[in-house]
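Researcher: Good morning. I'm working through a list of sequences from a screen, and I'd like to move beyond sequence-only analysis. For each chain I'm collecting a predicted structure so we can compare shapes side by side. This is the next one on the list. No need for commentary yet; just the structure.
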Amino acid sequence: MTPQPIAIPQNSPRVVATSISPASQTIHDRLRRKDSLAAMGAVRQPKVLHPVDNEDLKLLLLENISQEAVQYFQAQGFTVDHYTKAFSEDELVEKIPQYHAIGIRSKTRITERVIKAAPKLLVIGCFCIGTNQVDLVTAAKAGIPVFNSPFSNSRSVAELVIAEIIALSRQLFQRSHEMRAGIWNKQSKGCWEVRGKTLGIVGYGHIGSQLSVLAEALGMRVIFYDVINIMPLGSARQVETLRALLADADFVTLHVPELPETINMISKAELSLMKEGSYLINNARGRVVDIPSLIEAIRSKHLAGAALDVYPVEPGSNGAPFDDQVNTWATTLRMLPNVILTPHIGGSTEEAQRMIGEEVSQALTRYLNYGSTVGAVNFPEVDLRAITAEQGDHVRVCHVHNNQPGVLRQVNDILSPYNVEKQYSDSKGDVAYLLADIADVSPMDVNKLREQIRKTSANILTRLLA
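Model: Good morning. Structure tokens for this chain:
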């Protein structure tokens, strides 16, 4: 059966930000410009690209991702299915084959099994900071970039830590619990001002640095430990070792990703190094603290309290029990005095969720519509300036391939009958990504061109946008 020619869209129903020469700004700066050229009355408007497969793109959004994100995707013409709960692996394997993109938060796990069950999946969006819930290596090998939101909830988490510091130092939750039980217990013993106390921040990234500024505004002394040398903000001071921080801080707060080297980074030995009567706060990842060791440190009164917002295993939906079937020590932990337990709400503010929804939905749309991988955590970061609306016979080639010699020569041989106006390639580990804009492509050539590139020896995934 002879393949039918695919019509290349000639009209552009929407206007989006136009990228300019990278000589003057970084690629990240350019992506943050909001229709600046359109506002200036730019003569050449960018063209909205579409997959030449002409298949409607379907998105699956889980864990109650913001309605702003849903509306943004729908405005792009995507079909969106939105669920408030996380999906189990079995549920994902059943549902995901029909979807081209998926958006999750921290509870849904995208495993190798899920990825292998998703033949249409093009991109994964993590509407949160962390990406350890996704098998990043398998996703990359399948040609699927993963995007997250590394900045948008930083302020919300930092403010929560400040609230926890004050609540712990004043035993606020303990007194509140007693009052709710009908017990009047006014006391000052073991209650402190935070002014003049030392805050130790482990991980001085987006959250840690904002927290540093807020803590100093309260009159706290700030020290921090990080695996790289970082210029401190304000009067904060970097210490050389984690041991030095633990021995000096009245409050220790963790802001690190979950990596093999950070799992149980705070265990029995580290807790013994902390000052007697100090406090531990973890709003990072559940497995960076050995909870049984923390329980023992509080029971022995070596620590005066703790605040936990994350746990090694977390319930999959609101209303589910947090008990010993979830984590074997849950009941013991819940009974400890001056321990604040919250259900992973560090980034759960209206402001943070709105900004996360905007940031990740825009990143996914840029990839689906234009092939841009700027901001991907597991993928080469590649982008090209926009094809203009006047360039009606232009096609963008998005070619994910194994990182091996000779690929560009093969692809360029296929493209040689056409005028290659722009081309950019980069690699990350075993995966490489090529974007190329070619001109003078007739509708009759599109099918042939796509199939020729797909048949190259290193091909992982090839899309053509026009």
